[in-house]
Structure formats: C-alpha cells, structure tokens
Amino acid sequence: MRHKPFVLGALVAALALLSACGAAGDFGEGGGFSDSPSEPPRSGGDSGDMSGPPVGPGSPEPDPGQGGSTPSPGQLTAGDWDDNLNFSFFQKYLTEAPQGMPAHSSADRVIITVRDEDGFPVPNARVTVGDAAGKRLEAPTASDGRLLFLPTYDGAQGTGSFSVTVSPPPGRPGTPVTTPVEGTAWNLTLPGARGVLPTELDVAFVVDATGSMGDEINYLKAEIQNIVDSVRGTYPDVSARFALVMYRDDGDEYVVRSFDFVSSESTFRGWLAQQSANGGGDYPEAMERGLGAIHQLSWRTGNTARLTFLVADAPTHAENYQAFLREANRARLSGIKVYPVAASGVADEAEYLMRVAAQLTLGRYIFLTDDSRIGGSHAEPHIPCYQVQLLKHLLVRAIGSELAGRRLPASGTDILRSVGNPAQDGSCTRADGTVTYL
User: Fold this and answer.
1) Could you name the CATH architecture of 6-25+64-101+198-437?
2) Which of 369, 352, 356, 365 is nearest to 419 (CA)?
3) What homologous superfamily does CATH list for 110-189?
4) What's the confidence (pLDDT) of residue 174?
5) 131: number of Cβ within 10 Å
6) Which pTM does this prediction carry?
7) For the CA atoms of 351, 354, 358, 361, what is the dihedral angle to 10 degrees?
8) Predicted confidence (pLDDT) per residue in 46-65, tens digit
C-alpha cells in the first residue's frame, strides 16, 4: 500500500478522542455541540481558502510515532454527504465513475418507510418484497423506519408489480400486513405496532492496520474508554457495545483480525493493547475482507441501532470491487448502516466504492478536509455542498442520529466553513439552478 501520512493516524485518534464530547451537557439543542474551537472558526462561502491558522484548537501536534505524546483532541476536520438525499446528483455521479468501476444499478430505487398508526417510524420492522417470480428482498428497517429496495439490483425482472409484507420487530406488538405497492416511495402503516426508538447500540470500527498505523492503534488504546463514556454519558438508558476489526492485505501476517462486541471498556482496551501495525506493499488493501468481517460479529437483532465506521484511505484491489459491494449489500440486508470515513489517501476509486456502500445502507459519506492542516492534502470530494466540522462532533452526531431516528444537523457553533453556500434550510442552489441538500 502507499505509505499513509500522519492524517490517518490522527483520524483514528479523532474516533477515540470523542472524549471531548463525553458529558451529556456537550450536546446542544437539536443534538449539536455547545463547545467551539479555541481558535475562532473561519466563516464564509465556498472559496475553499485555507489561509490563516488551522481551525482546530492550537497547532497540530507532531507525529507522536510509537510511544510518543498523544496529540490534543479536536483538530481533524471533516464533512459529510447523503447520496440518497441527493439521488439525482448521485445518478449523474455514477455515470462519471472512474474507468473500471463496477456498475451500480440503483436508478429505480424505492424508499420503504414503515410507521405505526400514530405516524412514528418503526425501527427493525421486518420487510419482505416479492414479485411474480418470488422474494426479492427481506431486511429490517432502520431507526427512522426506512429501508431501500433496488428492484434491478435485487433481481426483479422488468417493471412487474410488487407486494410487500411488513412484520413487527422481534418481540414487539403489531399485526403483519401484506399489500400491493407501486411508485418509488412506499409508505406503510403497521397496525398495532409502536414506534419505539432503539434501546440498544452496536458500533463496529473497521480500521486499516497496515504500514504506519502503529500510532493509530496507540490512540485507540489510550482513548477508547472516552468513546464509551461519551455515548453512555449522553444516552445512559441505551445498552451500548463496541467491536473492532483490523484489516491488512493478502500476504501480510494476517488479513483480518476481529474482536467481537463487548460492553466492557476494560476488555476492549485489553484487546487493543495486543495490536500492532505492519504489512502492506501496494496501494490497494483487503478492504472487502475488512468490511466482510463485520458479518461474523454478534450483532443484536432486537431494538438495536447498528452501524459501522469504515476508516480507510485506499480502495480494495480491482478484482475485488464486486466483492466489496456484495459485503456492503449484506450490511443492507442485515440492517447495518455503513458510514465510510475517507482519509487523505482516498482517490476517485475509493470514493466511488465508499459512497456506494453508504448509499446502499442509508449511511452518509464522511471525508476529511484540509482545514486542520494535519497530514497530506485531501482530495476534494465530487459533491457540490457541505459543511466543515470537527470530525469528533460529526461522528458522535452520526451515532446520535441513529438513536434519535432522524438526522441531527450541525448547530451554528459547530460549522467551521461551508462549501456551496447552503441556505438556512440546508438547501444549496447550484449555478445551473439545480438544488442539493446537506
């Protein structure tokens, strides 16, 4: 693999350094955060001007290496993007994919939403879609009651009619209902059900462990306790568990090393203490094997929010592109949202694969920006509108959104810089008059 600059190390540090948001009081109104960087954030439009000091508190620390000092939290910056919210733009993006990328048949996407009789979303309802030839999809709804059905991708033939059966979540009240459906938005009511937000949280971190990742693992060793504390402090009634998957590449000491879900932070910290970074050689990695390993973890199937943060700076090998997308689709069928986190090494191929994985699973594509001045230059993503935030805020907010059953937007104090001049309502009008949304 291509040697990674310090930025990916700092990225996983930021995953661990959510401790800065550990107390419940860190959340402002609407799920935002009330703290702000000690350096005044730059405001302003979409010029992308990086002049002036870094936006994080203080200057970036030097690379601590193995056994060095840990950098201070709250320096890495990132943006995020929802390709399902901007579906027409996503379809155009797919047509401009780098040469050799696999096709993604999603133009006929259907959004299925299951609600109770009071209009509240029903998480983990079981949805089965069939046509004249048989079953095409069976999967649970997310915490917002939604699920994607992709007729062509899911093997449907032509434009035949579909029927959908919705059953209540395991152990929950409700009467199964079967009905014919049509169109691209299927809004279904489950009689007798109650829309109850998740009381359980399973989060898996899938992280590259090649080359220069030694200091990243040390960050996780030092700070994973604070990740757990942050979630538990903010959501004391939620049963939270965390898992870890480290991956390298074929021919290395190992390709995948997995540690199953645990609620004990001390046990998790002990597992981390055993890790080291090594291996790699060419640029691509066994990313499909890393993502695939989440399906061997003991995910809960009850009233659970399930999500994976895939931390990567390189794509999988070209011959494994389809294998990676199959693993992402398995996540969709299992009700696991994938939130890719793209570091400085990410180029067009990796962005494509990561965005498809996020789109399939109703996740959001997360990417680092240059605002922090940490590491190498970050390629500008192929999107027209986003808000730069501290990465630690963005990741905690992603978890909070899954537990809340709706997206928790960034508050004004969290937004360091905007690209695309978003309006107050989150809409961004482009030069050609089309509109995208944050």
Assistant:
1) 3-Layer(aba) Sandwich (3.40)
2) 369
3) Carboxypeptidase-like, regulatory domain (2.60.40.1120)
4) 94
5) 17
6) 0.84
7) 150
8) 334 443 444 443 334 434 44
